């Protein structure tokens, strides 16, 4: 059987006392699949990303990347992982090329090989001609493209993107979404794309995990989630699945 690119099982995390961010979270992201982690602000998406990248240790449960436990075998797990965090992490005073060369060096990629990979990724993103410009000279959409190019330099098989379109205009958002979908279709990369924007989901091809108040309310192909919710589209399903039910929910910290 195909090993999931990402497998989350019984994940629980709290920040002290009864303040739980996640409770019993479980889902899979398969190779080549574009999966949207859909939830409102405060649903627990960023906490989940921190756990999936090893920045936090779970209170209970497991995160496995291609079968490697993120806690017990972090080196093997992280080797196949690329990440674009919600907050930008590029050095504004370095050029595009300098930022990418620095990241490549951290992964032990030699200069000649790094430059070949950088040229390839920047060309795919229509940014190669701007490789000599400082990051602060780029607009938000171009900076996000650089972060994606950086995340792909070490040839990951799983890409996590936490609210990557925050602050971007509509054309830039659409360009970014198309490019990441192409990575799944053409390169077989598995993607977990966290968002609170329903229009970033392609109902024909995407999978969705609905996260609300720290719990998974539904997961699977969009058509399956809609059918199980008894709704005609993602927007209706999301409204139904996240309807207020204080008695069944818990206090959520993040």
UniProtKB/TrEMBL annotation:
<keyword id="KW-0813">Transport</keyword>
<dbReference type="InterPro" id="IPR027417">
    <property type="entry name" value="P-loop_NTPase"/>
</dbReference>
<dbReference type="InterPro" id="IPR003593">
    <property type="entry name" value="AAA+_ATPase"/>
</dbReference>
<keyword id="KW-0067">ATP-binding</keyword>
<dbReference type="InterPro" id="IPR050763">
    <property type="entry name" value="ABC_transporter_ATP-binding"/>
</dbReference>
<dbReference type="InterPro" id="IPR022467">
    <property type="entry name" value="ABC_transprt_ATP-bd_su_PQQ"/>
</dbReference>
<dbReference type="InterPro" id="IPR003439">
    <property type="entry name" value="ABC_transporter-like_ATP-bd"/>
</dbReference>
<comment type="similarity">
    <text>Belongs to the ABC transporter superfamily.</text>
</comment>
<keyword id="KW-0547">Nucleotide-binding</keyword>
<keyword id="KW-0536">Nodulation</keyword>
<protein>
    <submittedName>
        <fullName>ATP-binding cassette domain-containing protein</fullName>
    </submittedName>
</protein>
<dbReference type="Pfam" id="PF00005">
    <property type="entry name" value="ABC_tran"/>
</dbReference>
<dbReference type="GO" id="GO:0005524">
    <property type="term" value="F:ATP binding"/>
</dbReference>
<feature type="domain" description="ABC transporter">
    <location>
        <begin position="6"/>
        <end position="238"/>
    </location>
</feature>
């Amino acid at each position: 059987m195909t090993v999931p690119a990402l497998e989350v099982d019984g994940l629980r995390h709290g920040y002290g006392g009864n303040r739980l961010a996640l409770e019993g979270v479980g889902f899979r992201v398969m190779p080549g699949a574009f999966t949207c982690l859909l939830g409102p602000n405060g649903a627990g998406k960023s906490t989940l990303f921190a756990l999936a990248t090893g920045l936090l240790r779970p209170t209970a449960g497991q995160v496995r990347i291609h079968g490697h436990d993120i806690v017990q075998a972090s080196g093997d797990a992280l080797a196949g992982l690329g990440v674009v965090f919600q907050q930008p992490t590029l050095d504004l005073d370095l050029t595009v090329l300098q930022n990418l060369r620095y990241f490549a060096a951290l992964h032990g990629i030699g200069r000649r090989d790094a430059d070949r990979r950088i040229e390839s990724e920047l060309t795919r993103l229509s940014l190669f001609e701007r490789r000599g410009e400082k990051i602060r000279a780029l607009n938000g959409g171009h900076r996000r493209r650089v972060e994606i190019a950086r995340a792909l330099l070490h040839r990951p098989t799983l890409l996590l993107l936490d609210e990557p379109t925050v602050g971007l205009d509509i054309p830039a958002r659409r360009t970014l979404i198309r490019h990441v979908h192409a990575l799944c279709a053409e390169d077989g990369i598995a993607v977990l794309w966290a968002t609170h924007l329903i229009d970033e989901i392609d109902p024909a091809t995407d999978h969705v995990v609905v996260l609300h108040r720290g719990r998974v309310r539904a997961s699977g192909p969009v058509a399956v989630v809609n059918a199980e919710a008894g709704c005609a589209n993602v927007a209706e399903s999301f409204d139904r699945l996240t309807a207020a039910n204080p008695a069944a929910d818990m206090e959520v910290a993040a």
